[in-house]
Specification:
Two copies of one chain form a homodimer.
Chain A: E1 2-5, H1 6-12, H2 17-31, E2 35-36, E3 41-45, E4 50-59, E5 64-73, E6 87-92, E7 98-103, H3 107-124, E8 131-135, H4 139-148, E9 156-160, H5 164-178, E10 182-184, H6 188-192, E11 197-200, E12 219-222, H7 235-240, E13 243-246, H8 249-255, E14 269-270, H9 271-277, E15 289-292, H10 297-313
Parallel strand pairs in A: 1-7, 8-9, 8-11, 9-10, 11-12, 12-15, 13-14, 13-15
Antiparallel strand pairs in A: 2-4, 3-4, 4-5, 5-6, 6-7
């Protein structure tokens, strides 16, 4: 059994084409019905303002499955500790023996989450998409844009965040580390004016994006919501968009954007199905597409298999 | 973060009164509504005849919670490996950080499972119980009897197992290691004739114990069933017994003995409630009581906290 720390893992696993293809293969297997993926195990620790989620999946034919444990303890910053944490255990799918423990502290989750955004944009956004609007200014605001560059020729970024200081810091960082021009906006509407792709990356409990904010032809990825209280999109977006896709229907209904649109009557597809069947849902440059990502165990198993291969080869 | 292996853990954690009190305290907290215990996460790996279960619970006020991962890969013996395996991770209930990894290979599960049987007998069997009948001849057939000695003055054991050779080996082992007289029987009915306590410890998919097998005044603990296909007790036992108790109603209905008696209309109590409220359900020496144990996350969190304290003190 091998044990790896975050530093070792981060040295090997990057936001690159090979990682993207691995996660995309996981989604495709899910779409072909080749993935066993039980519901998320979730527990609250109310006295410490904490929660822990456990996700897993097995992709038929893959040598290992991951079990990911993600604690979130939101009073940790008062103690000088990060809120989010976590590790992945990798088990042999033949014997059930533990083969590796990846003490990644959430690093692989950050990577596979950003890659899912890129995969959504690859299959849903216009191929000539150049301009990205990002709502939120945290780590995923950076990683989602970095991952999008793997699938689209991104030339400019527009950012809006509730905290203008954080948005300014984000802009400075993105210019310095990613060489991208970034404009800070005072509203989501303003940030979206010329966007080809919009990514919402917030823990918002009330919509941060409205239907009226969206220009024609845009693709929206909402990646922030992962529990029933979180909600980034005005339900009208889900009702009016030409194409609505989610990573997993059961999860989006339970803890994603569909949870806040219970009366929605329309076709909603799963991302894995589109990939598996090679379907292109966008049929014109004017259509508006939306993808809600809640985060799935199949992404964890895919990225953990990939990480272990690289770490063992290193 | 500390990592402990099976040998280190087994050296510290034994079937003794202190361990029993810890698990009993966990059940009592569950009975008082002080435990957060989500449903078990369960995944099949059909291509390898495998499954993996994840259990967890947090006991309010306790410093740590455990997440237990139990793979069962039933073709492993062909490869010279044990079918069952597993580990427990202990997290700080204040910060969510991993504090210990207990690579116990299922040892702590064996212990807490046996202790639950003893706790059930402590609260449900006659105080003068002396004779135990055991159905099955595996590891739990041994540990359940050993644990019962913590709460009752056990003087003799009667065993029945489908495989007579295993039952004979069990008898030899119990005489040698536990100094108990053991009689091997050709049927469950025969083994139960003079029993004060009956424990079923099998992975049976059809009842191994019938109502007509039970003498007056007996207490029955069924600890084998932990998935919807398993079933040790004829439903008539649940219908006719004077007292029926389970470790967790939701689990017994989903994957324990109650699953096979869906039409049952009677009072069924949870073990933790009895302990928390100090209730004694047995009101005469003739009554027949039954307890179905499916195995709960609160036992895991209790025994893992206990193990970590001992290991840190060692």
């Amino acid at each position: 059994m091998q044990i790896y720390n975050r530093q070792q893992i981060a040295k090997q696993v990057k936001l690159d084409q090979a990682a993207l293809e691995t996660v995309e293969a996981g989604f495709a297997a899910l779409g072909r019905g080749e993935v066993e993926m039980p519901p998320i195990l979730s527990m609250n620790i109310a006295e410490s303002n904490g929660e822990v989620d456990v996700k897993t999946a097995h992709i038929r034919g893959w040598p290992r499955f991951a079990i990911k444990i993600s604690p979130g303890f939101f009073d940790n910053p008062k103690l000088g500790l990060p809120s989010l944490n976590g590790l992945m255990l990798l088990f042999s799918a033949k014997t059930g023996l533990v083969e590796a423990v990846l003490f990644d502290e959430g690093y692989l989750t950050d990577i596979r989450t950003a890659l899912a955004g890129a995969i959504a944009a690859k299959h849903l956004s216009r191929t000539d998409a150049r301009s990205v609007a990002v709502i939120g200014a945290g780590l995923q605001a950076e990683l989602q844009v970095a991952a999008l560059r793997l699938v689209r020729d991104i030339r400019e970024v527009h950012v809006h965040a509730r905290d203008r200081t954080k948005a300014e810091a984000y802009a400075t960082h993105m210019r310095a580390y990613h060489g991208l021009p970034v404009t800070v906006h005072n509203s989501a509407a303003s940030a979206c004016t010329k966007a080809d792709i919009v990514v919402t990356t917030t823990p918002a409990r009330e919509p941060v994006l409205r239907w009226s904010d969206l220009p024609k032809g845009v693709h929206v990825t909402a990646m922030g919501s992962d529990n029933p209280h979180k909600n980034e999109l005005e339900p009208a977006i889900l009702a009016n968009a030409d194409v609505v896709v989610v990573d997993r229907l059961s999860q989006s209904r339970a803890l994603g954007e569909l949870h806040h649109a219970p009366a929605l009557q329309r076709e909603v597809s799963e991302l894995g199905t589109l990939i598996a069947e090679g379907r292109i849902l966008r049929s014109s440059a004017e259509q508006i597409s939306v993808c809600d990502l809640t985060g799935t165990g199949v992404q964890d198993t895919a990225i953990a298999n990939y990480a272990a291969r690289l770490l063992e080869g290193a």
